[in-house]
Structures are given as C-alpha cells and as structure tokens.
Specification:
Helices cover about 40% and strands about 15% of the residues. The protein is of the alpha/beta class.
Length: about 575
C-alpha cells in the first residue's frame, strides 16, 4: 500500500557534498541556509495544504538538511524504505541542478515505477532539456503556481487518466517531449493557504522533525516567511523573476497579490505557533499604497506581535513607514540599493533608479521611528562595477555606520553562484557587458563540481573576471569587517573570527588556483573533504548578524502540543 500520495524532496545543491572537496565560497552568506541551500520552496507548504484539502497525503523531506545534520544519513536507504505513489523534487533555484537530478536518479533506481515530478522556476526555464535528456525525470510542471495541475496529475497517474489536458505539464510520450500549454496562471492567490500545523503533523506522523525544518539552526532562529505576491512589477536585469522574465517564463505579465485578509490570516496562523520574526519579501507597495496600507491594517487587527520584516524595492514614502509604525508593534525592513555608485545602479536598468540622497533621507526618518532594524544590501558582480567601485561601496557603508545607530546594518555579497536563468543578463549577456559561461543544465551541473567558487561562477563581466570577482569579494569583506569593528557593530572577538575565516579562505583558494588545471593539491583536497562550512560560511559577515537569536522560547508550546495530541489521536 502507498503510504503517501506525494513525497516532496528538497535536494542539496550538490550530491553528495559529503564526499566532495569543493570551496563553495560565500555565496549563501546573505541567506539563512548553508552553501547547500537547504531552504525548500514555500510552495511545498501550499502544495501540501492544497492536496490535503483534496484528501491526499503528502510528506515533505528536506533531504539537504537531513544530510547536513546527520553524516550517516543514507539517502538511497531512506528512499528505499518509502512507499510513495509519486515523488516531487524542486528545481526552483538553479544551484540545486546537481543535487535535484542526482536525487531523482537514486529515487528511480529504487522505485523504477514511481513517477518523478519536477517543478520550480529553474525547472520551468529548462523544462525541455530536463524531460528530453534526463530519463529519471518523468514530468515537469511549469509555472509559479502548480497546486491544481499537480492534483490533476496525481489523480491521472492514480486512475490512468489522460495527461494531455493537464495545464502546464511537460512529459514524454513515445520518446518525444510533449509540452501542454502554460494555461494555469491564476489571477488570485487566495485559493492557497499556508497551514503551519501541517509541518507539525508531518513531523509527528513520520517521526522526522529535521525533515520538515527549513534550515540548519532554525529551532534557535525560527524565522518564517509570508509571500504576499507572485511575479514582479520591476525589471531588474539580474533577477530571474523580474517583470520581463515572468512574462516569458511563467506567463505572468504583472504581479498578482494575496488579498490583505488572506495575507493577515497567514501571519496570524504563524503567530499562533511562533513568536519569531516573519519576513515579507517582494514589496507590498508594488500593489499600491492603498493595498499596502490595507495589509498593515489587517495584520494589526490580528493582534500578532511577531516582528514583521518588510522588503522594499524602491525608497518607500516616509509617510508609509509612519503608517506601519503607528499600527504594528514590531517591525523592520530591508532595502537593496546594490551599489552606492549611481552609474552602477542606473546600469541595472529597470532597478528602481533612486538616488542616495532620497534613500538616506528615508533611512534617517525611519530611524526616528520604532523600527527594530534596517538591513541595507549591496552586491558584487554588477554591470559597470569594478574593484574600485566595490571598495567605495564599502566605504559608503562606513559612512552609514558613522550615523551611530546600530539598528542600521549593511551587507555586501557576491552575486552567485549563478546568474539567474531567464534574467535579462542571462538572456542577453553581451548587451550588459557579461560573459555567460554555462548555458544548459548539463553545463551548470559540471560547474557545481569545480574545486572552487572562482570556477563555479557562471559568469564574468567586462569589468571583472571571475578571479577579480573573488578578490573583490574577499577585499570588501575584510574592509567591511574592519569598519564594523571600528564602529562597534561587532565585538573584537567576532571581528577576529571573521578576519581569520577570510584569511583561511584566501590561503586555500590560492592553493586551489595554483593546481586547478592539473590535479588538486592533495593537502588542500584533504582539508576541504566534506567541508562546507569552515571556508564558505560567515565569510563576508558572521551569519549571526542576519539573525534574530531567540531559541525555544520563540515557540508557543501549548498550541504546538495541541496539534501533536490531535495527530497522535488521529
Ligand atoms: C522569497 C525568495 C527567497 C527566500 C526563500 C523563500 C522560500 N522558502 O521559498 C530566501 C530569502 C531564503 C531566498 C533565498 C535564495 N534565493 Co530567492 N527569491 C525569493 C523571491 C523573492 C520570491 C520568489 C518565490 O520563490 N516565489 C514563490 C513561487 C514562484 O514559488 P513557490 O510558491 O515557492 O512554489 C510554486 C512553484 O514555484 C512550483 N514549485 C516549486 N517547487 C516545486 C516542486 C515540485 C515538485 C512542483 C510540482 C512544483 C514546484 O509550484 C509551487 C506551488 O505553486 C524571488 C524573487 C522574486 N521577486 O520572485 C527570489 C528568487 C527565487 N531567488 C533566487 C535565488 C538565486 C536565491 C538564492 C540561491 C540566493 C543565494 N545565492 O543565496 C537563495 C537560495 C536559498 C535556499 N534555497 O536555501 C532567484 C532564483 C533564480 C534561479 N532560477 O535560480 C530568484 C528568482 C531571484 C533572486 N535572485 O533572488 N529566496
């Protein structure tokens, strides 16, 4: 008997990273995950919730996290012990293209008759190659929203129904790739709900807590995310989900928003279990001031007191910040000017083209409010950006630190490991001064196995080669660390730790570079064996700076206890 109707697996970036010697670099320093990118798509929750409503049973397993936390975790053995009717694997972020296909291969080897379904933005972009060249992948569901088509597919597979009417489906028939129209592009997102209690149920039912957690260390940093929209109104040339990219790839010409009530219900549902912060990416103001204010009103009405961390793509009106401040007890925000340099920022075409003066005015006003924290993100690898420009950006961070308010934080990181498939720079690299070094899934998979992130990056620019991008990253990280120490942002001990990490990563990189064309220096290989943290973790900053450290007190244990009891009884 099949125990679950769908087993959803989130792969690590590289399988099996525990057997590899690779210097992955600081490519995940700005997100809570490690370089194996263990965070699974939010869509896992909406798919599981939707299928549950239709009477189906779904299990989520974060394979990446299970591998990270248990060196003895044997993926093949684990898969062999499962009895799923179908297996779903996300290829949402391109850096998973190695791990996702390897996990699919293992799944097919142990369950040759169980269909394997791929989905996510990168799978959408590469649907044809995936179904044509990888026999372990039976189906790809395209698009940014797949809940109903996935249900239709699972029913058709169970009952032997026809496949040609299932929207967004790509499949193989008689050796040919069949591509059904991308006809499911919902104009409202309110048909999906995120039920956090589902995760508790799964953890209890399958006696697997780690398998449902989003990232390593989540229990002490229970940050969650509520997505207000899909698609985007902005045209940032580097983004794999920009307005033009979505129009081409997911059939979404303009963003679609959850209703304020639906959004607030999601915040309240999370608030019922956790006191941790809730990140709200994607900029509510894309829906207009009225929509954004309605969202704030609805959230305030729920009484949830979790910190809500907003993201702004453009400089938000100060009046809007005051509106939030008057209504939410606990809020913060982030903004990504990418560079201090107007030439660079404007070369990003379509990126909200604001000036530093406007941003600084807004930041100063925000700091007068009860805003808990403001994160300002800069990036390395942009058009028109050379080493000097990067270092000037870091000095600009120093100026902001000089304001003397430690709620204002600055970060800088490399764009990597990959340019986003479907982004304008990926589609027309030369137009923007880029050289693209991998085109297909196969080529990206090969890159992920290179010995060092200098050789993993899938691009270089007219202004910096891959080697110079790496140099600029380490130089910027070193200087930013120094500035944070000087302005009292981090303790001397933490600053020393970061400085030492950068120095070690530089040394190792030099050894790898010397030997790259021949064989890898055996001592470097030994030092790197299975190592993903020491030289690639907390390099451009100490990762703890991203977090709101809280611990188990963040959880509302009675509410969790109730779900546990219900599940055990059910
Ligand atoms: C929110 C977000 C995040 C959150 C993650 C939230 C989460 N858990 O999903 C955080 C901040 C952690 C994050 C991190 C990263 N992100 Co991000 N992120 C976004 C953002 C803003 C939202 C888009 C999004 O995911 N929408 C949700 C939709 C599209 O998907 P969904 O609802 O989760 O899932 C549906 C479908 O995608 C599909 N689906 C997905 N998986 C599967 C699996 C199966 C089997 C099926 C059938 C269907 C299916 O069906 C689902 C249900 O409808 C976009 C930018 C944007 N403006 O859109 C970038 C974006 C997706 N991120 C991107 C990147 C590159 C990253 C990082 C690799 C960056 C880095 N180097 O650190 C990391 C990866 C982290 C990890 N996995 O550990 C790129 C992806 C480009 C690409 N194709 O590779 C984007 C497009 C833009 C960008 N550069 O930031 N990100």
């Amino acid at each position: 008997m099949k125990v679950v109707d769908l087993l959803l697996l989130h792969p690590p970036s590289v399988y099996d990273f525990r057997q590899q010697s690779i210097l992955y670099g600081p490519v995940s320093d700005m997100v809570p995950s490690s370089v194996m990118f263990e965070i699974y798509p939010i869509g896992f929750l909406t798919m599981a919730g939707y299928l549950k409503q239709q009477g189906m049973r779904v299990r989520i397993v974060n394979v990446a996290l299970r591998m990270l936390t248990d060196p003895a975790f044997d993926v093949r053995e684990f898969l062999a012990a499962q009895r799923p009717a179908a297996i779903g694997i996300d290829l949402h972020w391109m850096p998973h293209c190695h791990g996702a296909i390897e996990i699919a291969r293992l799944a097919k080897a142990v369950h040759p008759d169980v269909p394997v379904i791929f989905g996510g933005l990168s799978a959408t972009y590469y649907h044809e190659e995936l179904v044509r060249d990888y026999p372990e992948i039976d189906f790809v569901l395209r698009g940014d929203s797949t809940e109903p088509p996935l249900h239709q597919l699972l029913v058709a597979l169970r009952d032997g129904g026809p496949l040609d009417a299932i929207p967004n489906l790509v499949w193989r028939e008689g050796g040919q790739v069949r591509t059904n129209p991308l006809s499911y592009v919902p104009r409202s997102l309110d048909y999906i709900d995120v039920h956090p209690e589902l995760l508790i149920e799964m953890a209890i039912r399958h006696r697997d807590i780690t398998g449902v957690l989003p990232f390593r260390g989540w229990l002490s940093n229970p940050t969650t995310m509520v997505l207000p929209l899909k698609g985007c109104a902005f045209q940032c040339i580097t983004c794999g989900s920009s307005n033009t990219t979505c129009a081409m790839m997911t059939g979404r010409r303009k963003p679609v928003f959850r209703s304020p009530a639906n959004l607030a219900a999601n915040v309240a549902a999370i608030g019922g279990f956790s006191r941790g912060p809730i990140v709200m990416p994607g900029d509510l103001l894309q829906g207009g001031r009225k929509y954004a204010e309605a969202c704030i009103d609805e959230m305030a009405a729920t009484g949830a007191d979790n910190e809500i961390c907003f993201e702004f793509f453009d400089v938000p009106p100060v009046e809007f910040l005051r509106y939030i401040d008057a209504r939410l007890p606990n809020w913060s925000f982030e903004i990504s000017p990418e560079s201090h340099d107007r030439v660079v920022r404007h070369a990003m075409e379509g990126q909200a083209g604001y000036e530093n003066e406007a941003m600084e005015h807004m930041l100063r006003e925000a700091l007068k409010l009860d805003c808990r924290r403001i994160d300002v993100f800069f990036m390395i690898g942009l058009p028109q950006q050379d080493h000097r420009s990067v270092m000037e950006t870091v000095e600009y961070c120093g100026e902001l630190f000089g304001w003397g308010d430690r709620r204002l934080q600055c970060f800088i990181s490399p764009m990597g490991p990959f340019l986003d498939p479907g982004s304008q720079i990926f589609e027309q690299p030369e137009r923007f001064g880029y050289r693209k070094l991998a085109h297909t899934v196969k080529e990206h998979r090969e890159l992920l196995l290179q010995p060092s992130w200098e050789h993993i990056l899938n691009y270089e620019t007219e202004w910096m080669t891959r080697s110079q991008l790496v140099d600029a990253t380490y130089d910027a990280a070193e200087r930013l660390n120094e500035l944070k120490r000087r302005h009292g942002y981090i303790s001397p001990r933490r600053a020393d730790g970061v400085a030492q990490g950068i120095a070690e990563a530089r040394r190792l990189r030099a050894r790898l570079r010397d030997r790259h064309d021949g064989r890898m220096d055996p001592r470097a290989a030994e030092e790197l064996h299975g190592e993903i943290a020491r030289f690639s973790h907390s390099t451009v900053c100490d990762k703890r700076e991203l977090f709101w450290q809280r611990g188990l007190l963040s959880f509302r244990l009675p509410a969790i206890g109730r779900v546990v009891l219900q599940t055990l009884r059910g």
